[in-house]
Write the structure tokens for this entry.
Amino acid sequence: MKAGILVFPGSNCDKDLDLVLREVYNFETELLWHTKSFNVNHDIYFLPGGFSYGDYLRSGAMASRSLSVNSLKEAEKKDKKIVGICNGFQILTEARFLPGALIRNKNLKHIARWEALVPMGLFKDKIPEDYSLPVSHSEGNYLADVDLLKELKDNNQIIFKYKNNPNGSKDDIAGIISKNQNVIGLMPHPERAVFSAKDTPLPAASGNSFFDAIFQGL
Amino acid sequence: MHYEGIVTVRFKKSVLEPQGQAVMLSLKETGHEDVDLIRVGKHIEVTLQAESEDMARQKLEKIAEELLYNPVMEVCEIQITGKA
């Protein structure tokens, strides 16, 4: 299996993802720099957490207009799996791969801690109910109007909810999936809970169940 | 010709804008209880080249739509303010 990891100026979870994909899942990986187009010859694409272009204007806004994201549109047309984590999720909404938008946390603070999550939709039966992942973000407040929220619910597009909403997200939403079930965006960081989880009192290696679930059927 | 313009970006009325809320609370706490609402937006100044004022406005509208605002959560107003 071959994974493409899009890297932007300011990305800081690209290496974590790379390590998880290579060491734990035996993927061949390629880091794809934002100034270059790429050939769509990977099985899955990841947009990592961190920052992009300083996140001036709006988080993910400028990254969503980059050459690499332009190539990602080709990947989307070919029904490739695309996963955006944190800043990657913000880029995917800005590029309209996913609906809605992510704005400043309701309390205006950067939140970096473990959050209890409710797996839903695609992940409902694939991830343990008692589930937590680390979050680390300032703009994770998911915005959806009444119509979008209804659509997300009707199509089973909500994949994670926070048990204790930390950021003001509409309906406690922490992650969503596209209608065709190919594009995933989530604020929590599963890649940070693969190697480090053994040092925490929380369930070990919780990030693995996320990756196990998305790699099924690849 | 070089034209100067201003793009004003505001959150939609339906969005509870956290920065404005924080600024409002801070004002209320410092004695300005009469403040009802604060909403923080963006004021973007642009200088660009165009053959006429109309062309400058069209170009600025295009730029705004492509990058400067996100219609999912924001609204935007465009003004050409003069020649640079």
Remarks:
- The mean pLDDT of chain B is 95.
- Strands of chain B lie at 2-11, 42-49, 74-83.
- Chain B has one domain: 2-83.
